[in-house]
Amino acid sequence: MRTIVITGGTDGMGAALARHFLDAGDRVVVIGRSRAKFEALQQVPNNRAEFIAADLSSVAESRDIVRRLRSRYERIDALVLAASFIRQRRHVTAEGHEASWILFFVSKYLFVTGLADRLGAAARPIVVNTAVPGARADAIDFDDLGMSRRFSFARSNAQQRRANELLGLLATGHDPRLAYVTWGPSGLVRTGFAGEVGPAMKISAAVLGTLVGTRPESAVRPIIDLIDTPVPGRAAYRGAKKRPLVTGDHDREDIARLVQVVEHELG
Ligand SMILES: NC(=O)c1ccc[n+]([C@@H]2O[C@H](COP(=O)([O-])OP(=O)(O)OC[C@H]3O[C@@H](n4cnc5c(N)ncnc54)[C@H](OP(=O)(O)O)[C@@H]3O)[C@@H](O)[C@H]2O)c1
Q1: Mean pLDDT score, 179-184
Q2: Domains assigned to the chain
Q3: Distance 50 CA to ligand 1 centre (A)
Q4: The whole model's pTM is what?
């Protein structure tokens, strides 16, 4: 039986994946904030589904979840990183960090690095990181990762997407057998779009989602195929379509620098 860990597995695409893999007979560990949503996932409660409540915009909680996963599971076959809470404005957490940077990158970094040996124990390990690939190679502001000076939604989004692509270099460098995929849907998906956004973004997401959005169950089909037949190494996908990885002149230096700055900031 495979063990599949899904952050953001209580809603949207993460929930569609959780339902699919539970139906397929896998053990699924769902991480999110709402136990009620988790319970609604399962038609019939079964002992292959586990829920761990966590706010992944907290560094302490992200670390704690990694510790708990490590103590419970010797092997993790697939790690899906799909937690999402869209903030249009800069928000500082009680820990003093910029919330989106922690949720969309630092927490993922802690999962990928902290669970590396558990993934390494699987025959065909895979990480699917739902960070839309294709951000510019120079999108990271190394001197101000929390964007205290020039925050904008677009800059923050591009920075975390680029950082997540670079994270694949670190992960596959550590374990060349690992498949590491940065994945975004091919178009809008009809999900809850959890977040704190202005009325314009909220209305356009709701209207467009209803008019042209794909159902989460359909949108995640390519992720299911990737998890069922993982290919070692890094890859980028939009829907089922493979995209070229963005490569910059200094990718290896950039990921080393990113790790250094993040570790320094985490203390
Ligand atoms: N939907 C789209 O069209 C679209 C387009 C491009 C990219 N994506 C990406 O695809 C991924 C999935 O998106 P989605 O639209 O399916 O998401 P969604 O329906 O908004 O669901 C978000 C999930 O994240 C969890 N979550 C939110 N804040 C959290 C926190 N602080 N700590 C832990 N879990 C948290 C939620 O669980 P609780 O409610 O239980 O906390 C929920 O399970 C995301 O990475 C998103 O950026 C989506």
Answers
A1: 98
A2: 3-266 (3.40.50.720)
A3: 18
A4: 0.97
